[in-house]
Amino acid sequence: xxxxxxxxxxxxxxxxxxxxxxxxxxxxxxxxxxxxxxxxxxxxxxxxxxxxxxxxxxxxxxxxxxxxxxxxxxxxxxxxxxxxxxxxxxxxxxxxxxxxxxxxxxxxxxxxxxxxxxxxxxxxxxxxxxxxxxxxxxxxxxxxx
Length: 145
Fold this sequence. Notes:
By secondary structure, the chain is an alpha+beta fold. It folds into two domains: 2-79, Arc Repressor Mutant, subunit A (Orthogonal Bundle), CATH 1.10.10; 82-142. Helices cover 48% and strands 18% of the residues. The protein has six helices and six strands. The chain has helices at residues 2-10, 43-59, 67-81, 84-92, 97-104, 108-118, and strands at 14-18, 26-29, 34-38, 119-122, 125-128, 139-142. The strands form two sheets. It has a three-stranded mixed sheet, with helices on one face. A three-stranded antiparallel sheet has the order 4-5-6. A hairpin with a 2-residue loop joins strand 4 and strand 5. Helix 2 crosses helix 3, helix 4 crosses helix 5 and helix 5 crosses helix 6. It is globular and about 45 Å long. Residues 133-145 have low confidence and may be disordered. This is IrrE N-terminal-like domain-containing protein. Residues 10-114 form the IrrE N-terminal-like domain.
Protein backbone atom coordinates (compact mmCIF):
# COMPACT_ATOMS: atom_id res chain seq x y z
CA UNK A 1 0.00 0.00 0.00
CA UNK A 2 2.92 2.29 0.71
CA UNK A 3 4.01 2.12 -2.95
CA UNK A 4 0.48 2.97 -4.09
CA UNK A 5 0.37 5.99 -1.80
CA UNK A 6 3.76 7.12 -3.13
CA UNK A 7 2.47 6.78 -6.69
CA UNK A 8 -0.63 8.77 -5.76
CA UNK A 9 1.60 11.53 -4.39
CA UNK A 10 3.64 11.57 -7.62
CA UNK A 11 0.38 11.89 -9.58
CA UNK A 12 -0.74 14.74 -7.31
CA UNK A 13 -3.61 12.68 -5.89
CA UNK A 14 -4.58 12.40 -2.23
CA UNK A 15 -5.99 9.16 -0.81
CA UNK A 16 -8.66 9.11 1.89
CA UNK A 17 -10.64 6.48 3.75
CA UNK A 18 -14.34 6.84 4.62
CA UNK A 19 -17.51 4.87 5.12
CA UNK A 20 -19.11 4.55 1.68
CA UNK A 21 -22.67 3.39 1.06
CA UNK A 22 -23.23 0.04 -0.64
CA UNK A 23 -22.26 -0.92 -3.30
CA UNK A 24 -19.43 1.64 -3.49
CA UNK A 25 -15.93 0.47 -2.63
CA UNK A 26 -14.05 3.54 -3.81
CA UNK A 27 -14.09 6.45 -6.22
CA UNK A 28 -11.85 9.00 -7.88
CA UNK A 29 -12.79 12.70 -7.96
CA UNK A 30 -10.82 14.26 -10.82
CA UNK A 31 -11.66 17.85 -9.91
CA UNK A 32 -10.28 17.40 -6.38
CA UNK A 33 -7.54 14.93 -7.44
CA UNK A 34 -8.75 12.68 -4.65
CA UNK A 35 -9.30 8.94 -4.16
CA UNK A 36 -11.64 7.70 -1.45
CA UNK A 37 -11.96 4.04 -0.48
CA UNK A 38 -14.25 2.30 2.00
CA UNK A 39 -12.74 1.55 5.40
CA UNK A 40 -14.31 -1.94 5.54
CA UNK A 41 -12.19 -3.27 2.66
CA UNK A 42 -9.69 -6.05 3.33
CA UNK A 43 -6.03 -5.18 2.68
CA UNK A 44 -6.15 -6.97 -0.69
CA UNK A 45 -9.38 -5.22 -1.70
CA UNK A 46 -7.96 -1.89 -0.53
CA UNK A 47 -4.86 -2.25 -2.70
CA UNK A 48 -6.91 -3.29 -5.74
CA UNK A 49 -9.42 -0.46 -5.32
CA UNK A 50 -6.74 2.18 -4.80
CA UNK A 51 -4.75 0.88 -7.80
CA UNK A 52 -7.94 0.93 -9.91
CA UNK A 53 -8.70 4.51 -8.88
CA UNK A 54 -5.09 5.48 -9.61
CA UNK A 55 -5.78 4.18 -13.11
CA UNK A 56 -8.58 6.70 -13.42
CA UNK A 57 -6.24 9.44 -12.19
CA UNK A 58 -3.45 8.39 -14.56
CA UNK A 59 -5.80 8.39 -17.56
CA UNK A 60 -7.60 11.60 -16.50
CA UNK A 61 -11.02 9.96 -16.40
CA UNK A 62 -13.89 12.20 -15.37
CA UNK A 63 -17.20 10.86 -14.13
CA UNK A 64 -18.51 7.35 -13.54
CA UNK A 65 -20.15 4.83 -15.80
CA UNK A 66 -17.90 4.61 -18.88
CA UNK A 67 -17.16 0.90 -19.45
CA UNK A 68 -14.00 1.70 -21.44
CA UNK A 69 -12.69 3.88 -18.60
CA UNK A 70 -13.42 1.11 -16.09
CA UNK A 71 -11.60 -1.45 -18.25
CA UNK A 72 -8.60 0.88 -18.64
CA UNK A 73 -8.47 1.50 -14.88
CA UNK A 74 -8.62 -2.26 -14.22
CA UNK A 75 -5.80 -2.91 -16.72
CA UNK A 76 -3.70 -0.17 -15.08
CA UNK A 77 -4.30 -1.70 -11.64
CA UNK A 78 -3.36 -5.18 -12.86
CA UNK A 79 -0.10 -3.89 -14.32
CA UNK A 80 0.70 -2.15 -11.05
CA UNK A 81 -0.04 -5.07 -8.76
CA UNK A 82 0.75 -8.30 -10.62
CA UNK A 83 4.42 -9.24 -10.87
CA UNK A 84 4.69 -11.29 -14.09
CA UNK A 85 7.71 -13.29 -12.92
CA UNK A 86 6.07 -14.24 -9.65
CA UNK A 87 2.87 -15.11 -11.52
CA UNK A 88 4.89 -17.39 -13.84
CA UNK A 89 6.45 -19.23 -10.91
CA UNK A 90 3.09 -19.74 -9.21
CA UNK A 91 1.37 -20.92 -12.37
CA UNK A 92 4.23 -23.31 -13.13
CA UNK A 93 3.55 -24.91 -9.74
CA UNK A 94 0.06 -25.77 -10.99
CA UNK A 95 -1.85 -23.54 -8.60
CA UNK A 96 -5.44 -22.61 -9.53
CA UNK A 97 -6.15 -18.97 -10.38
CA UNK A 98 -7.81 -18.17 -7.04
CA UNK A 99 -4.76 -19.43 -5.14
CA UNK A 100 -2.42 -17.50 -7.44
CA UNK A 101 -4.47 -14.34 -6.84
CA UNK A 102 -4.24 -14.88 -3.08
CA UNK A 103 -0.47 -15.41 -3.24
CA UNK A 104 -0.05 -12.26 -5.37
CA UNK A 105 -2.26 -10.20 -3.06
CA UNK A 106 -4.84 -9.32 -5.69
CA UNK A 107 -8.48 -10.19 -6.25
CA UNK A 108 -9.31 -13.03 -8.66
CA UNK A 109 -11.02 -10.45 -10.89
CA UNK A 110 -7.86 -8.36 -11.15
CA UNK A 111 -5.79 -11.45 -11.91
CA UNK A 112 -8.19 -12.30 -14.76
CA UNK A 113 -7.76 -8.75 -16.10
CA UNK A 114 -3.99 -9.31 -16.07
CA UNK A 115 -4.36 -12.63 -17.88
CA UNK A 116 -6.64 -11.14 -20.53
CA UNK A 117 -4.67 -7.95 -21.16
CA UNK A 118 -1.02 -8.63 -20.43
CA UNK A 119 -0.20 -12.17 -21.49
CA UNK A 120 0.34 -13.61 -24.93
CA UNK A 121 1.09 -17.32 -25.10
CA UNK A 122 2.84 -18.64 -28.15
CA UNK A 123 4.36 -22.13 -28.52
CA UNK A 124 5.16 -22.67 -24.86
CA UNK A 125 6.43 -19.13 -24.25
CA UNK A 126 4.41 -16.50 -22.47
CA UNK A 127 5.18 -12.86 -23.23
CA UNK A 128 4.15 -10.06 -20.91
CA UNK A 129 4.04 -6.31 -21.21
CA UNK A 130 6.53 -4.39 -19.11
CA UNK A 131 5.26 -3.48 -15.66
CA UNK A 132 4.57 0.17 -15.13
CA UNK A 133 7.66 1.94 -13.92
CA UNK A 134 9.89 -1.08 -14.46
CA UNK A 135 11.31 -0.17 -17.87
CA UNK A 136 10.30 -0.16 -21.48
CA UNK A 137 10.94 -3.77 -22.43
CA UNK A 138 8.96 -6.97 -22.83
CA UNK A 139 9.94 -9.93 -20.71
CA UNK A 140 9.43 -13.58 -21.57
CA UNK A 141 8.95 -16.54 -19.30
CA UNK A 142 9.08 -20.24 -20.19
CA UNK A 143 6.00 -22.09 -19.05
CA UNK A 144 5.69 -25.72 -18.15
CA UNK A 145 3.30 -27.63 -20.38
